[in-house]
Amino acid sequence: SIPIAKQLASIKALGKGSDLEKAFATAALVYNNSADPEGKLSKAETKSLLQTQFWGFIQGQENKPKYQEIISALDEESENKIDFEDFMILLVSLTLMSDLLREIKDVKTTK
Questions:
Q1: CA 20 to 30 Å from 95, out of 38, 49, 51, 102?
Q2: From which residue to which does any coiled coil extend (predicted)?
Q3: 54 or 16, which is more confident?
Q4: Where are the domains of the chain?
Q5: CB atoms within 10 A of CB 68
Q6: 78: left (phi over 0), alpha (psi -120 to 50) or beta
Q7: Would you say 66 and 93 are in contact if contact means Cβ atoms under 8 Å apart?
Q8: Contacts of the segment 57-61: beta carbons below 8 A, 24+ positions apart
């Protein structure tokens, strides 16, 4: 498996890309590296990917109803798979409820 940083570096359009562009490209690469040939993830694979790659954002959220709703939907036995759009919606949803987001908002930048 090729490291994400190396994959990012190989994308010529991102050579002078912004931090935000690189962040979204990283999310897309992480997703694509785990997806099946049809570009989708099973719900179990999605849950595992979130737990391994998004732990800082979901840590401590276990008692929040919205978190429980998201995770229980992934635990359901279903043939439905998650596409990239749904995966990004999960990322945004988990980010918005995260305690880490508050910490990020409180970071002071200096010029």
A1: 38
A2: none
A3: 54
A4: 1-33, 39-110
A5: 12
A6: beta
A7: yes
A8: 57/94, 57/95, 57/98, 57/100, 57/101, 58/94, 58/98, 59/99, 59/100, 60/99, 61/94, 61/97, 61/98, 61/99
pLDDT at 78 over 80: no
Q: CA 104, 106, 111: angle at the middle one, nearest 5?
A: 95
Cβ atoms of residues 50 and 59 within 8 Å: no
Cα separation, 36 vs 5, in Å, equals 21
């979204």: which residue's tokens? 24
Query: Model confidence over 61-74: pLDDT tens digits?
Result: 989 999 999 888 88
